[in-house]
Amino acid sequence: MSPFPDPTEPRVHGEAVVYRLFDVGYGIALDRAFDLLASSAPERRLPSRGEAQTIQIPNPPVTVSVGSESVEIAGRPVEVELSARVFDFGVVSLRARVAAHVGLGWNSFAAWGAAVGSVPWNDVLARARDRFLSRIAPAVDQPGVSNLTEDYTVFRVHQLSNATGEPFAPADLQDGEISRLLLGEPRPLSAAARKDLLSPRLSYFEDDLVVLTWASALVVEPVREDTDVQYVLEFANAQLLELRWYDAILDSEVPAIQTRFLQARQGFRLLGRRYSQLLEMLQRRVADSVELVERVENSLKVTDDVFLARVYAQALQEFRERTWRSGIERKMAIVRGAYDMLNAESLARRSEMLELIIVVLITFEIVLTLLRR
To answer: What are the residue boundaries of the structural domains of the chain, listed by start?
Structure first.
């Protein structure tokens, strides 16, 4: 990273926030977690912008600092701030905040961002996760850390200026400059690739800007205390992880239905109850899927099309949330179809068995009558 930036480059005052989200259980009792974390001054804040009133979060997540750790970035040891955010649907988000050198030229800031991305965050944040989970363990329902994670990086810019120190308008940033930071490609991308990989530009004031990709975001926001955009991006990532987790469960269970069906068919149960256990499992899975999707959907609701709502909707689009949801719905349709088929066959067998019993009883009565004569 050259200490002498190009005079035409904007100078950057900013930081990177690295997120790694983990599914750690079926659910988390946030009131209990808040009490367990009381010594670390936890918070349950909501977005604070005026238009944030259109975003409803019935059970706000718990946010808390979890210390700091030293990592090496571009050959230099750097102290990073660690924090966690806990969601009631079983997701814990670990965050590492890394401050950049003040006044880096844009190209140097992009190179620094690539160096941040090369840090072995998996080890750093997994250790922090394990320490954190030991503190909130009593609040976790059906604990179990999934192998699935969501990784996301937000490059937060507090100030842009030109070579003379005057403000540099975020709207004047070129797509090539933004893609170099967010995508980490050393070679310039084509216009078509930038169009496909970068979201439309979103802004509310003249001095702010949000651009998203599937794995990172640029957030230009001069008010340091305003982290509402990061809040909704983290929420969207948590919801995505929960959908991916449930999709993986269905991937393992749907193929097993055929095996269980064959095993049940080989067994013997009176009155057509050979499928009872399998039907109970399918019914439970349908109920679980409805509850999970409802929990995720109801955790954050948008009631109007304002700036934060557009950021949230664009994030869901970048994350292909609809694709994951459609996959779950398709697999659940298979489960429901299997349930209906097995239930119909079970009822038919039960009806046949009852008819047979009736025939046997009638025959028995006739035989008894003949014997008495």
So the answer is: 11-232, 236-372
Residues 91, 59 contacting (CB under 8 angstroms): no
Residue-wise pLDDT for 233-284, tens only, equals 999 999 999 989 888 887 777 766 666 665 555 554 544 455 566 666 666 6
Residues 148/245, Cβ–Cβ less than 8 Å: yes
Please name every residue paired with 209 in a beta bridge, in sequence order, or none if there are none: 220
Q: What HEC string does the chain produce?
A: CCCCCCCCCCEEEEEEEEEEEEECEEEECHHHHHHHCHHHCCECCCCCCHHHHHEECCCCCEEEEEEEEEEEECCEEEEEEEEEEEECCCEEEEEEEEECCCCEEHHHHHHHHHHHHCCCHHHHHHHHHHHHHHHHHHHEEEECCCCCEEEEEEEEEEEEECCCCCECCHHHCCHHHHHHHHHCCCCCCCHHHHHHHCCCCECCCCCCEEEECCCEEEEECCCCCCCHHHHHHHHHHHHHHHHHHHHHHHHHHHHHHHHHHHHHHHCCCHHHHHHHHHHHHHHHHHHHHHHHHHHHHHCCEECCCCHHHHHHHHHHHHCCHHHHHHHHHHHHHHHHHHHHHHHHHHHHHHHHHHHHHHHHHHHHHHHHHHHHC
As a whole number of angstroms, the distance between CA 25 and CA 91 comes to 7
Q: What is the pLDDT of residues 186-228, one digit of tens each?
A: 788 888 998 889 999 999 999 999 999 999 999 999 999 999 9
**How many Å is the Cα radius of gyration of the chain?**
28
The tokens describing 42, both together, are 């936890």
Q: pLDDT of 87-113, one tens digit each?
A: 999 999 999 999 998 889 999 999 999
